[in-house]
Amino acid sequence: MSKVKYYYDSETLSYRKIEKKKGRKLSIFLLSLLGMLLSGFLLLLVYLNLPYVETPKEKTLKRELSNMQLQYDLLNRKMDVAENVLSDLADRDNNLYRVYFEANPISEEQRKAGFGGVNRYKDLEGFDNSKLIATANRRLDILTKQIVVQSRSLDEIASLAEEKEKLLAAIPAIQPVNNEDLTRMASGYGYRTDPFTKARKMHFGMDFTAPRGTPVYASGDGVVTRADNSASGYGNHIRIDHGYGYESLYAHLYKYNNIRIGQKIKRGDLIGFVGSTGRSEAPHLHYEVFKDNERINPINFYYGNLSPEEFADLLKKSQQENQSLD
Ligand SMILES: [Zn+2]
User: Fold this and answer.
1) How many angstroms separate the alpha carbon of residue 285 from the centre of ligand 1?
2) Residue pLDDT, tens place only, 140-173
3) Residue ranges with CB less than 5 Å from ion ligand 1
4) For residue 76, which of 160, 20, 140, 8 has the smallest C-alpha distance?
5) What CA–CA distance (Å, rounded) separates 30 from 126?
6) Whose CA is closest to 98, among 166, 145, 149?
7) What is the rounded CA–CA span in Å between residue 65 and residue 298?
8) If you compute the radius of gyration of the chain from its CA atoms, what whole number of angstroms results?
9) What is the pTM of this model?
10) 264: helix, coil or strand?
């Protein structure tokens, strides 16, 4: 309720009511309407985000956004590099390491498994930069997956390498008697004349002629399974199990070098001394190599301590069909 205002009329000497003029009321109303429209229009401009009404906060946000896009571009470039390095590593893994250790190569599908079909990045949709962010996320996820696959493959290679190292140490790969101790390489693996019956028969080992007491060395890592003279013909002999199906046998020994059954032996360990016990014509070492219980030619294993020339010489001598010493 508006207050009723009065004024003092000096002519009539009395108070009188002030009557409001209708025209003035109307103009006040129009003015306030215009004000409202104007402020409404300004708010509309702000809402439409027009450049000429950009607030300082909006300017800051815009700068931040373009900086973020720049950072994403840089991140993508870094991922290019990481992807190239990893792909190079995967190539080497498949074509070199896994081939060398006889492991199957890992296929491209296995390396990137689980990244086809399903859209894992739905949550990232619906924004101006959705594609940028989803792409970067996807690339990083694939990279992570590939790193896991690659790392597992290298673990496998490492254990295969360790196994191969053990195998290489186990194989009977050196000559059991030093070259300088040999008087001659008497006889190799193959058909030879029997020194006692003079009949032609198979000689399943190699004979190294050396003076009695010449050191005999284990040709590979393994465990002693026999050291006795109860096998017919071999006399005092040692048998070593190298694992992986390989065994070696050293016969006609003069004596053992503190050897007992079950003893662990390293390649090159001194195990006994050359003699002529058992079915033997003269002091020599009769040496045999077994693979899966079959006797095989020991000459194929001397890559451990012979030069190519020495090997060729040994091969030539061992192939001469002479009389064995048994
Ligand atoms: Zn022999």
Assistant:
1) 7
2) 988 998 899 999 999 999 999 999 999 989 999 8
3) 205, 207, 286, 326
4) 140
5) 45
6) 149
7) 75
8) 48
9) 0.64
10) strand
